[in-house]
Design goal:
The chain is mainly α and 143 residues long. The protein contains 5 helices and no strands. The protein is flat, with a radius of gyration of 18 Å. The mean pLDDT is 89.
Length: 143
């Protein structure tokens, strides 16, 4: 039963996310893809995944320990802080910090986490901004 509850929560989250994406006002200066496309793709994937969990739940789910829930909570806090500080410190710096923390919590050594967080940030910036031409939040350093 807990899997189905989790699936319903995920489905409600997907619907809310899709609704929030659909109310985004598009500027006539918007890029070719537009600001709604990526959130709608994420909402679709989340919705379909949640439907699979509702339709075919695990027979005997094993819930993680309290400490695992705390780690997931900390990751959620990091992602909320990422969204809050992204416009202020810019895409590259905010993404590097968030990716560094998340890779560290996934089990890499601290120095490896810093390197991978920075490379991830620069790589995503290069693909989305330089190759695809999408506008990303500029930080105090101008990128």
């Amino acid at each position: 039963m807990s899997d189905r509850i989790f699936g319903v929560v995920g489905l409600l989250l997907a619907l809310g996310y899709a609704w929030a994406a659909l109310v985004i006002e598009e500027s006539f200066l918007s890029d070719a893809v537009g600001p709604k496309a990526f959130p709608l793709i994420i909402a679709t994937v989340l919705g379909l995944s949640s439907l699979v969990i509702i339709i075919k739940p695990d027979k005997a789910p094993e819930w993680p320990s309290f400490m695992r829930f705390m780690e997931v909570g900390a990751a959620i806090v990091v992602m909320i802080l990422y969204a809050i500080y992204l416009p202020e410190i810019g895409f590259v710096i905010a993404t590097a910090l968030a990716a560094t923390y998340l890779t560290w919590r996934l089990g890499t050594r601290p120095l490896s986490s810093v390197v991978s967080g920075c490379l991830t940030s620069v790589g995503i910036y290069a693909v989305f901004h330089l190759v695809l031409g999408l506008s990303l939040a500029k930080g105090p350093l101008g990128f």
